[in-house]
Amino acid sequence: MAVTGAGHEHGHDAHEDGQDQGQGRGQAQDLGQGQRQDQAHARGQRYGARGPLFGVRVVELAGIGPGPFAAMLLADLGADVVRVDRPGGAGLAIDPAYDITNRNKRSVLVDLKSPQGPAHVLDLVERADVLIEGMRPGVAERLGVGPADCLARNPKLVYGRMTGWGQDGPLAHAAGHDIAYIAVTGALGMIGTPDGPPAVPANLLGDYAGGSLYLVIGVLAALQHARTPAGTGQVVDAAIVDGTAHLTAMIHGMMAAGGWQDRRGANLLDGGCPFYGTYETADGGHMAVGALEQQFYDRFTELLGLPDRSSAARKAPARWGELREAVAARFKSRTREEWTAVFEGTDACVAPVLSLREAPHHPHLAARGTFTDVGGITQPAPAPRFSATPAAVVGGPAQPGADTACVARDWDVPGLTGKGGDA
Question: Does 22 score more than 50 pLDDT?
């Protein structure tokens, strides 16, 4: 996602003007306006009450993709995140009640193109620690909520900018999506089989790993600086191309040392190695194998039922094709469930490849509570975990504008309840 250079000036262009923004399906559609306001007030009392970021206030200018995900991470960790939605909505082309990246947040409605819109946002900024936006370079400035305007109002503000190409460079104003960003960094070209095209890793690698996570790291580092005695606010330029390139640091080192070939499907960690990859089972399922070290490999081949001579093939790349065929034949002899039972709990480093719907039911993930159910939606629980300040999902996806009144009260910004809000 992270559209930079195309679409609308406030947020991204993956929303539908005809979408009902006032309420979602399921439980939300049974609530009247008064009930929604009461629940919004109750959420306002809870938000920020858990997690290590308790007391941190974040303003998020609505968008899609890595920006909202980064803001969700901060909200999960206890920050009071107020999402500034625009009338008509700015989000995924789904019912906002199902947009999990907006959980643990509150929402206000502000039209940044209205005469009073920028002033309302600056009122929030004055009381905030962090602002996150994902618009193309220069758009926030034209709307009157760019870094200069915001830092003039609040010199300690951390201004986080999430884009694909970054704030400068030849492509800074060009449109793009995750796949293009990871393509030019070399990361996409590493993934897939040697005789096929690069495999697309959904938008996890660019948008979220190279984008959201680096934005959060940058924001928290800048916030730490701002809170030192001589600290000031600053701009965090988080570009997906920069973050994704940074993720390849170890590979670049291995390549320089001669331990990595600059082509996919030919290396230890990219599927080129027969004891680090995936194999189909008798029922069409798959098992993932990561038996890199000798002791794990020995246990793997023992449980798989390979002959002892396979140990010699492990150390001879010229025989990897032969070894791969032998491993594949063995996995095809039983179902995924049968092989799972064989390897479960051993040091063979083998696991079943599960679907998104299957994953929450895996015994280990279920025991740890890796997934949770909130409002009937199964979703990943907050991560990582903290011993003294645990995080939790305390509210479902924020409905556009539903929290305007309580945010106006809690943040002491009464102007929000005027023409720019819906409360």
Answer: no
DSSP at 191:
S
Catalytic residues: 177, 207
Spell out the residues 6+ positions from residue 231 whose beta carbon is closer than 8 angstroms to its own. Answer: 156, 225
For residue 239, give the H/E element and its range: strand 234-239
String of DSSP letters for 38-103: HHHHHHHHHTTSSSTTTT-EEEEE--STHHHHHHHHHHHTT-EEEEEEPTT--S-SS-GGG-GGGT
Q: To the nearest 10°, report the CA torsion of 150, 154, 157, 162.
A: -10
The per-residue pLDDT for range 366-402, each reduced to its tens digit, is 999 999 999 999 999 999 999 999 999 999 999 999 9
C-alpha span between 286 and 391 (Å, rounded): 34
Question: Tokens 């490999």 belong to which residue?
Answer: 297
Could you tell me how far CA 221 lies from the centroid of its own chain?
18
Compute the distance between CA of residue 163 and CA of residue 177 in angstroms, rounded to an integer: 10
More confident residue, 332 or 42: 332
**C-alpha to C-alpha distance for 135 and 86, rounded to whole angstroms:** 14
Say whether the peptide bond before residue 198 is cis (omega within 30 degrees of 0).
Answer: no
Asked if residues 32 and 204 have their Cβ atoms less than 8 Å apart, the reply is no
Tell how many helices (H) and how many strands (E) occur in the chain: 15, 11
Q: What is the pLDDT of residue 25?
A: 31
Residue 323 contacts residue 307 (beta carbons within 8 Å) = no
Tokens encoding 134: 């994902």
Q: How far apart are CA 313 and CA 315, in angstroms?
A: 5
Nearest C-alpha neighbor of 398 from the set 131, 47, 120 = 47
Four-CA torsion 65, 67, 69, 70, nearest 10 degrees: 150
138-177 burial, b at 16+ Cβ within 10 Å, e below that, comes to: ebbeebbbbbebbbebbeebbbbbbbbbbbeeebbbeebb
